[in-house]
Amino acid sequence: MTIKSKFRVTDPGIFWSLQTIDQLGEYSFSAPQFDEIDDVYLDTKNRRLLAGGYYCRQRSRAKGCLISLIEFESIDGVDQRSKQWDLILKRNNHNPNDWPESKVRKKVLKIVSDKKLRPIFTLHQTRISRMISKWDQVIARAIIDNVSVDFEGNDQQFKTVKIVILIPDDNENHLETLTADFQAKWQLETESRSKFEQIILLELDERH
């Protein structure tokens, strides 16, 4: 289970500042690391996983792919907690019956039965990662994403930044402090929706 805060970013200047700032309050930021990520979201024709409160993501890797089954997030204020189960496959395979024994396979088959999965949409994101430290101890990671999704040739984009706590909170609530610092510095709005939910809403807008 991950504990994080997430915000939407609509100002290009703020998006640039998030990549270049070195210090925020008592926290320092590492140099940015850039990654290009391609994801395919899978479900049945009638979207049984979505109806069951889950979504399934296939992420390309150097060899094979990573299948992640993600339960919709619970929200406590701006803190978000999500459950995720992962499965590594040697090659792309959208038939969960063929997957090796795992929690992912068991949970997916329980929902979809004998139905095969198929791609429902694909997204590409440029991810900028920055480690956040306090007194030379790494506390959290800032994940800054520029997301692009294509709907029948019409490209839609949105940007987010997420703070992921990497160590248990002991005497200080780092997530609460970092969230307050981010909001004070950039007046960011919290984003309670997952990328999947944001894309579903974009898809609905395109249809109407």
Count of separate DSSP helical elements: 5
CATH superfamily: Hypothetical Protein Pfu-838710-001
Quickly count the domains. Answer: 1
Please identify the structural class as seen in this structure: alpha+beta
SSE topology sketch:
Blueprint: E1 2-9, H1 12-20, E2 23-24, E3 27-29, E4 33-43, H2 48-51, E5 54-60, E6 65-71, E7 74-76, E8 79-82, E9 84-89, H3 103-112, E10 118-134, E11 137-151, E12 154-165, H4 174-186, E13 189-190, H5 195-207
Antiparallel strand pairs: 1-8, 1-12, 1-13, 2-3, 3-10, 4-5, 4-10, 5-6, 6-9, 7-8, 10-11, 11-12
Summarize the structure.
This protein has 208 residues and is an alpha+beta fold. The protein has helices at 12-20, 48-51, 103-112, 174-186, 195-207; strands at residues 2-9, 23-24, 27-29, 33-43, 54-60, 65-71, 74-76, 79-82, 84-89, 118-134, 137-151, 154-165, 189-190. The chain is globular, with a radius of gyration of 18 Å.
What would you say this structure looks like, in words?
- This protein has one domain: Hypothetical Protein Pfu-838710-001, CATH 2.40.320.
- With 208 residues, it is of the alpha+beta class.
- The two termini are 36 Å apart.
- The chain has 5 helices and 13 strands.
- Strands 1, 2, 3, 4, 5, 6, 7, 8, 9, 10, 11, 12 and 13 form a 13-stranded antiparallel beta sheet that branches.
Provide the descriptors you would attach to this structure in a database record.
208 residues; 24% helix; 13-stranded antiparallel sheet; alpha+beta; Hypothetical Protein Pfu-838710-001; globular
